[in-house]
Specification:
A hairpin with a 2-residue loop joins β9 and β10. The strands form 3 sheets. Strands 1, 2, 3, 4, 5 and 6 form a 6-stranded mixed sheet that branches. Strands 10-9-11-12 form a 4-stranded antiparallel sheet. Strands 7-8 form a two-stranded antiparallel sheet. The protein is an alpha+beta fold and 262 residues long. The chain has a single domain, classed as Ribosomal Protein S5, domain 2 (2-Layer Sandwich). It is built from 5 helices and 12 strands.
């Protein structure tokens, strides 16, 4: 217990001095790389490395029935799996509260941005396309929200749309890319003591007393999600929204470069 207290104070003292273990600034991301097409049997896929955090996202598009309250629209279903091989913090078995939170936060930003026009997924009465985003955490070292969003968005932008012909789903041949718009990214901030950091790594997350994820496209904030205890002042939130719009320019550029297109 005494060692934990010393470590806690040491981390906080360094952060108060504007220093992080990897020598980043408080509002800096770790190195980010994005690779697409890593899962050949998926409609689209992407792997993101954010520092030592590694996340894989796969897109599957299947024929299904529409929801009762949206009969003229297709569906979007997002899930996340925190694999035990990624961290000793994760257990095998049914979805954990942490995995459900990751999936919901990522889904909310993508859905609210209108990146996928669910109306375009309508085929005919009683038949629509359902877009499944499956997120797999391959290695955990903090900030699964931003890494997962980047992977999901890159996978969506690279996805090929199957065809429905003569009562059958066709997944081969000259398939067009799925239509997307309003590229969504997110920035996640952690509060340690009175200091706020962007893109907390695994060790920093252990000492985070409040977390805020802001999802946006190039024009608007589309979703916000607060996590853990603690709080942020209105002035802090205003500054974090400004930082999000600035940082998201670089994030969108990385996605565009990896997945192609505008």
């Amino acid at each position: 217990m005494h060692i934990v207290t010393i470590t806690d104070e040491y981390i906080k003292e360094r952060i108060r001095g504007g220093m992080r273990n990897d020598k980043r600034g408080l509002m800096s991301y770790r190195d980010i790389t994005i690779g697409v097409g890593t899962m050949p049997n998926a409609e689209g896929s992407a792997e993101v490395n954010m520092g030592n955090t590694k996340v894989l996202a796969g897109i599957k598009i299947d024929l299904s029935e529409p929801m009762r309250d949206t009969p003229g629209e297709g569906n979007l279903v997002t899930s996340a799996e925190l694999l035990p091989m990624a961290s000793d913090k994760f257990d095998a078995g049914p979805p954990s509260p942490e995995s459900i939170e990751v999936a919901r936060v990522i889904d909310r930003g993508i859905r609210a941005s209108g990146m996928i026009d669910t109306g375009s997924l309508f085929i005919e009465e009683g038949k629509v396309w359902t877009v499944y985003i499956d997120i797999y955490v391959l290695n955990y070292d903090g900030n699964l929200f931003d890494a997962g969003t980047l992977a999901s968005v890159s996978a969506l932008r690279s996805a090929r749309m199957p065809k429905y012909e003569n009562g059958a789903v066709v997944r081969e041949g000259n398939l067009q890319r799925m239509k997307t718009a309003n590229m969504c990214t997110s920035c996640t901030f952690g509060k340690i003591g009175s200091e706020i950091l962007l893109d907390t790594d695994g060790s920093e997350e252990s000492f985070t007393n409040a977390r805020l994820t802001i999802a946006n496209d190039s024009e608007y904030v589309r979703a916000m999600q607060k996590g853990i205890g603690g709080s942020f002042t209105l002035a802090e939130i205003d500054k974090l929204m400004e930082a999000t719009f600035e940082k998201s320019k670089d994030l969108r550029s990385l996605v565009t470069k990896a997945s192609g297109g505008d």
